[in-house]
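Severity: low
Component: inverse-folding endpoint
Summary: output formatting inconsistent between runs
Steps to reproduce: submit the following structure tokens with default settings.
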């Protein structure tokens, strides 16, 4: 029988064998964790749909390209699994400052009414059953997007972005057929009241500068790449990572003129449609009258053709202020043509004549004071 050689471990290994076993176990666990993360680090997956791209860096003062809005795509999970998955993601512990008040600066009454109706539609179809806070939160997200460079700079533009595409819409109700349902009158009135308050400067602070939200029974692909900022009712709110989600990025201004989405036609109640039609007719009539008035006026020297003031009224005259040297030259020229060409005030300014006042003429106060002192000493 062949005897196998006895395997003898080095002395330093035998002395510290338990320490070596512990180190080997820790190393194995680290390797296992790395493999697990590589296989799946974002939860449930769906084949054929890519996750959102990384958000570019934002530096105040630089003209960097903003992140592009993501398409509407969800992971294929059951509502129950989605609720559990969403609940497992904690809220961010980074600062969540309230947004600045947004006060609508529409170009006309028709544009103001369009903005109100579009925001009302978003509040109604996205959060009609969420209660007042949930509706205010949705309105705040819309207005946050109006100010962000990644989105349109009008209310209707934000609400109906991508509505012409089946999966490109940013708000589900604009492309899933919900607009075919007639709104409930009382709930629509409540949504409109909240929309008008938001457009008048009322801020819903809990969602901060959030630009995204979804219900807790779905899991959008973009959720893993954004910062979870707040829970309001059944909605979860997010903002961009890094500088694009902080206040300095929200510098956009309302464009003034609101688009008229085709899908809003016939949606609102008859009184609102009539008010919008009347406002559009009034704006058109005012523009026509201003153009006609401007055309009938003689062109003023130095005034640009078609010049109007801040209220879009034609400028009748434009007065340019005279420099002191110019005014003196005009008065001197008139005096050379005879004293009768001077007004009483101009004559007094040059000679001191023609007035009973004891005030000296312009530029002769010292001389006047000296004469008065001599007269007093007599």
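Observed output (run 2 of 3):
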């Amino acid at each position: 029988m062949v005897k196998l050689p006895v395997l003898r471990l080095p002395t330093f290994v035998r002395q510290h064998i338990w320490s070596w076993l512990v180190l080997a176990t820790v190393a194995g666990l680290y390797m296992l964790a790395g493999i697990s993360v590589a296989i799946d680090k974002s939860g449930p997956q769906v084949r054929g749909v890519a996750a959102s791209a990384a958000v570019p860096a934002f530096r105040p003062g630089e003209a960097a390209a903003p992140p592009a809005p993501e398409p509407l795509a969800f992971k294929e999970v059951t509502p129950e699994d989605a609720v559990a998955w969403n609940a497992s993601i904690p809220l961010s512990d980074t600062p969540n400052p309230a947004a600045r008040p947004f006060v609508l600066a529409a170009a006309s009454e028709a544009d103001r009414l369009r903005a109100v109706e579009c925001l009302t539609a978003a509040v109604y179809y996205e959060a009609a059953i969420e209660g007042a806070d949930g509706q205010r939160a949705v309105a705040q997200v819309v207005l946050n997007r109006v100010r962000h460079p990644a989105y349109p700079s009008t209310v209707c533009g934000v609400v109906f972005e991508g509505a012409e595409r089946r999966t490109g819409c940013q708000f589900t109700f604009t492309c899933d057929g919900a607009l075919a349902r007639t709104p409930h009158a009382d709930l629509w009135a409540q949504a409109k009241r909240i929309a008008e308050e938001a457009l008048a400067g009322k801020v819903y602070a809990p969602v901060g500068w959030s630009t995204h939200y979804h219900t807790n029974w779905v899991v959008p692909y973009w959720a893993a790449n954004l910062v979870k900022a707040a829970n309001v009712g059944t909605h979860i709110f997010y903002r961009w990572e890094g500088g694009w989600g902080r206040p300095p990025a929200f510098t956009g201004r309302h464009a003034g003129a609101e688009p008229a989405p085709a899908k809003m036609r016939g949606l609102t109640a008859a009184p609102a449609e009539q008010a919008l039609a009347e406002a559009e007719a009034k704006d058109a009539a005012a523009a026509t009258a201003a153009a006609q008035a401007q055309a009938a006026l003689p062109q003023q020297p130095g005034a640009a053709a078609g010049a109007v003031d801040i209220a879009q009224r034609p400028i009748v005259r434009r007065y340019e202020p005279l420099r002191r040297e110019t005014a003196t030259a005009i008065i001197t020229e008139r005096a050379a043509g005879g004293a009768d060409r001077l007004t009483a005030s101009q004559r007094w300014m040059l000679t001191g004549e023609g007035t009973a006042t004891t005030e000296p003429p312009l530029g002769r106060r010292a001389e006047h004071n000296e004469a008065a002192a001599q007269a007093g000493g007599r």
